[in-house]
Fold this sequence. Notes:
Elements lengths: L2 H12 L26 H7 L6 E37 L10 E4 L1 E4 L2 E4 L1 E15 L8 E7 L2 E8 L5 E9 L2 E13 L2 E10 L11 H5 L3 E16 L9 H4 L8 E4 L8 E5 L24 H9 L3 H8 L3 H11 L3 H6 L12 H4 L2
Antiparallel strand pairs: 1-2, 1-5, 1-8, 1-10, 1-11, 3-4, 6-9, 7-8, 9-10, 11-13, 12-13
Amino acid sequence: MSSTSVEAIADAVLYEGYILYPYRPSLKNRQRWTFGGLYPRAYSESQQSGDAWSMQAECLVVGTPHTTLTVKVRFLHLMNRTAGALVRPLSRWPEDDEPEWRPVSALHVGERQYPTWQEAAEREVAVENVELHELTSDGHFRRFEFPGSRSVEPVKSPDGQIAGILVREQQSVTGAVELGVQAIGDDVSKLTVRIMNETPLSGAAGKTRDEALMLSLASTHAILHVAGGEFVSLMDPPEGFQGLAAQCHNVGAWPVLAGDEDCRDTMLAAPIILYDYPQVAPESPGNLFDGTEIDEILTLRILTLTDDEKREVAAIDHRAGQLLERTEALARDQLMSLHGTFRYSQPRLEEDRHA
């Protein structure tokens, strides 16, 4: 396994849809956090809206009872960032109390602006070095909890006065990872990984989607690794495994082989459909956070933003600012490399080469 290549793909999956084109709060997308979102169970079951509270990945493992499994579940824990204007400017931060403030859609301080926005923190839950025979009877159930938080950041004006604040708030989220193994052939087992959002939510039937969203697990996916065994491709199962592969039932997650090509010790169970051994295109200058859109189109669109729009993009957060800075710094040959590249998904036949 190449951990670098797997992590690069997993990070791209983690931030799919993080910002969403066209990258600024004043022109909002109708719905953010659309990939791998797991909502509180109570909300999903009361609303019957189709918003999932769990996902399931199943795949085939060839190995012995002592084959060792490690599962890493990753998601984004959402955070509300509220821009606040102070009722009166302050020369220094009060020691004992929070200054009086009012929420605003955007805080304008000098030439900079700080919009009210949603940010996210990366979370990971790992179940490490579990032998398959430990999962064949009662399985393995791992609960997790990430507590809520609140922080206040003062924003200073060019003259040193404290002109406003940024308030960041996260709510506590809880969930569980369930692992199970079922022997279905000679040295072949079906591995089941289930991820659930069990965050309590009172009065779920009356909650809006936006209210439930802040208690969700966003961009949820899992990296599976075995030692002393190997996974079987579900996209192209070898002869003799097709029937067994058809028994795998995946809901909201699709496992594919990942890492160095021809290695079979790692799978990525992503909320978007990928092929075996996915890779970040070498021409890609960096993550565009935009749901598998085409790099060239998005890059050109970023470059055509007005100066005011670019200032708004830069104010979103550090990831958006880095995206804008990186895109504007692209050299001509880097831009040209995004256009007109041909790749073959499988070897061409001999007659095709000489046609």
